[in-house]
Amino acid sequence: MRIPELERILSAMLATYEGISDLNMSVGRPLQVEAFGELKPVTLDPAIDRLTPYQTEQLALALMQGNRRLMYDYLTTGSCDCSYSLNHEARFRVNIFRQQGHFSIVMRKLQAKIPSLTDLELPPIFEAIAREKTGLVLVTGATGSGKTTTLAALLNEINEKQPVHIVTLEDPIEFVHPPGMATFNQRELGHDFNNYPNGLRAALRQAPKVILVGEMRDRETMEVALEAAETGHLVLSTLHTIDAPKTVERIIGVFPKNEEKVIRTRIAQSFRFIVSQRLIPLSDGKGRVAAIEILKSTMRTREYIEKGESEGKSLIDAMEQGDQDGMQTFDTVIEQFIRDGVVDMETALPYATNQNNLLLKISDLAGAPKPQLPAEPARDETSMLDLIEP
Predict the structure, then answer these.
(1) What is the pTM of this model?
(2) What is the pLDDT of residue 373?
(3) Domains in the chain: how many in total?
(4) Could you say which DSSP state residue 305 is in?
């Protein structure tokens, strides 16, 4: 497929709906876009009712633009990642992957404007996060929950107020930060470094104050990231975990069991904030709002991480009772969204960490369903106690 034909298709897809976040191209399906969290078919002229294997292959090869590394990654691992610029219209993060022997493509539309903390309406504690000088700051959540956008806003805040050297390791580069008070060196996986552990080790020799790691994917990357955080750097990164407690479990879980005590101590001493995100559809159907959970490093949370959680001593308890320190849980935020009418109760409940607890908290609202109590065990009519003669 010629590049002009690819660009015509992409431009037409972008023009179909508002709020488009992704373009989806799969064999046997029409061209699709994801708008406000829902997949919608796209009709072009001439119409493409069902993409054929040949068509998706041609689209994929056009996006790869003859890059041998991308083809090698695709052939050896079954997928590859790259970026693509559509003239001055849009930039995309592209994942090309194999399914049932065919090419499939998902293109995430990237924002052109660097967002600020104010633009994203992030809690005031984020200004304090941006002022951290050392340690580990993690932003977690499912794919498409806005982790990269939140990190871009944090870097923008640092760029506006601090004369520091920032090195980013990304796959691919999504937001290109303009010159500000900070000096940026943005490196892309596959073009500027070969893997995250090696890129991180090299970054430690490049005299940065802030290091962004696009994603902590494996034990080796986590090990070097902890080392960087322990040696006077501020390390920002992401993980695909559902909340703050699961993030701690995930990091501990990638290390051998006999190292658990040491890793717990290292995490407790080096982490500064764990921010988790979930995007919930707005009640008016015109977009989504981010519910944000925040775990901060305090004497209490460090103790719970180092010694392990127990009854009445969990990270959830610490966040619920740590509002004075800027901490908050998903359920607290979602409850407020429901009370303010930002989201519908039925839509928001599946995003809660503990639906029953949330239902109890909003039971005073009209139309709130009753929480489901645990079912009582069935009574055994032939219990041994009934067989004992009086």
Answers:
(1) 0.82
(2) 52
(3) 2
(4) H
